[in-house]
Amino acid sequence: MKSKISAGCQVSSLLILIVLVIEYGLFFLAVPFDKVSSLMMLGYIFLTYIITCNNHGRTVHLYYERELSLLFKCIATDFVMGVFLYTYYLDHGKTRGIGILFADEKWWIGYIIMLVMHLISIFALCIFWNKCIYPGNKGKILYIYEKETPKDMRIIDDCISIDETEKKLIAEIMSNEIIYIYDVTAEKRNDILKTCFEAGKDVYLSTKISDIQLRASYLTQDSDQPCFYCQRPAISKKAVIVKRFFDIVISIIGLILTSWLFLIVAIAIKIEDGGSVFYRQDRCTKDGKIFSILKFRSMIEHIEDGKIYITKHKDNRITKVGYIIRKTKIDELPQLVNILKGDMSLVGPRPERPELIADILKEIPEYNFRTTVKAGLTGYAQVHGDYHTDFLEKLRWDMIYIENYSIILDLKILIMTIPTILRGSSDV
């Protein structure tokens, strides 16, 4: 993206100057260099957490480049400062300025001040970056839709319907830097793409099921005409064996490590209402096979009475203990038993109820594609969405997972699940 690259090159020296001024001021607080370095790392860990976990790494992907660029600039400028500090302490090896106020017996005061000041400097740079480096249309995102209005207003700056006049559409495209085309028919989408490319705009397209299938297809030839060879999405037999071995090992380790937690939760549930500890429900896994999923009971016993209810925010059916274990995902831990038995896998599409799948198939016939693999404890759809993400979006993520499967991808999803757990569930 030319405009972003040139803007970044123009402000690099200015960013370095700003950070150095702030950090040199912190230096004269005279906290020892090794402690300064430790506090800087805390600051970067904190900023990285905000970018990757606080609804940025998960939903605001379009701003990812901007935020990561800022993070790397901060690290680069602090590296320059670090060289200066290290050289200075080698030459002088003593406190300077108001650092005399922070003697050894009050070292913790220096720690607190350094941490606070460094975090302030990072956030000041964030504000400077967003307000000054990207003025006007720099980094602005235009959302073009046909049938549905934007679901998440946080990730866009403006939106317009594809049915608006050509003149108005072109004017909006020209006044924004990034164009996001959501669920627009191929014919209309091609016209917009042509306009965007001629104007040098960056374009994001929402995926259709057919797009995901084509991505995993093979290019071949029919006479003098190129064509794509598509197959039903599935995981190879060799990968299935490796995946099963991985599931057995991790589920056994998980059950051993969390056995104490099982006991605590079981006691808490019994103390609250004296009902059963576990809850069983029919769910679908690979090839539509029905199995009995195991969870810690988080709702009032027998409240559903065989009917299908979608859990709502602050649902009054959830018990006090249930609220905690649902929020922290602890209620899902007994599914390690399902994984060990072979009903489920650690990673895969989340299992749904047979009745619910039957209803979904009426609206989304392709939904059966996700049953070519075992249902999972966590999955691509869970780390990229949340409980209330619609079924079509979940299907897209599940198909991307199946098409790109590898044991490395499973490990990546398991790691990505950690911040999802720390964030807490959105269904309570």
Essential attributes:
428 residues, alpha/beta, 3 domains, four-stranded parallel sheet, 10 strands
Short description:
The chain has 428 residues and is an alpha/beta fold. The protein is 53% helix and 11% strand. The strands form 4 sheets. It has a 4-stranded parallel β-sheet with strand order 2-1-3-4, with helices on one face. A two-stranded antiparallel ribbon has the order 5-6. The protein has a two-stranded antiparallel ribbon with strand order 7-8.
Instruction: Characterize the biggest β-sheet.
Output: 4 strands, parallel
**Tally of discrete structural domains:** 3
- Spatial separation of the terminal alpha carbons: 41 Å
Number of strands: 10
Low-confidence stretches: 1-16, 53-60, 90-103
Strand content: 5-15%
User: Largest beta sheet: what is the strand line-up?
Assistant: 2-1-3-4
Query: Tally the helices: what do you get?
Result: 15
Overall geometric form: globular
> Helical percent range?
40-55%
Instruction: Give the integer mean of the pLDDT values.
Output: 73
What is the helix/strand order? Answer: HHHHEEHEHEHEEHHEEHHEHEHHH
| Secondary structural class | alpha/beta
Radius of gyration: 27 Å
Protein name: Putative colanic biosynthesis UDP-glucose lipid carrier transferase
GO molecular function: phosphotransferase activity, for other substituted phosphate groups
Keywords: Membrane, Transferase, Transmembrane, Transmembrane helix
Pfam family, one: Bac_transf
